[in-house]
Amino acid sequence: xxxxxxxxxxxxxxxxxxxxxxxxxxxxxxxxxxxxxxxxxxxxxxxxxxxxxxxxxxxxxxxxxxxxxxxxxxxxxxxxxxxxxxxxxxxxxxxxxxxxxxxxxxxxxxxxxxxxxxxxxxxxxxxxxxxxxxxxxxxxxxxxxxxxxxxxxxxxxxxxx
Length: 161
Prior knowledge:
GO cellular component, one term: ribosome
Number of helices: 8
Keywords: Ribonucleoprotein, Ribosomal protein, Signal
Radius of gyration: 16 Å
Signal peptide: 1-19
Helix content: 55-70%
Strand content: under 5%
Largest sheet: 3 strands, antiparallel
Order of helices and strands: HEEHEHHHHHH
Shape: globular
C-alpha cells in the first residue's frame, strides 16, 4: 500500500512540474499563462468525454501565484483532463452503492487510451489503470480516494467540496 501511494505521489509530482519559474528563454515548449489557458480552453471545447453529474469546466484554468510563471506545453490540456478525471472519480467515490460506479469506471478507463494520457501521463507501470481503476472495479476504492485527495484540489475548490 505504501509503495502504491508512493507511485501515485511520484506520478502526481511528475505531472506537477509542468508549471515552472521564469527562465531566461521562452522556448517553444514553454507557454505563458495566457497561452496555456488558451490550450486549456481549446481542450475543453472539444473534450472527448462528458463531465459527471452536471459538472462544468471552469472558464479558465487556475493561475499560478506568480505573473511570470511559465507552463510546459500540454499543461493546459492536462488541467482539462485532470478536471474530468476528478469529476469522474468524485462520481465513483460518492455513488459506489447504486451501481453507476461501474459505468463511470469504464468511462475513466477510456482516458488511458487518449493521446494526452499516452503523451503526458508518465505511468510506465500502469499504476493508474491497475491500481486506481482496476482495484476500484473490484470494489476497493481506497487508492482512488488517495489519488482524488492528493490530485483533485482544484476540482474540489471549484465545486465547494
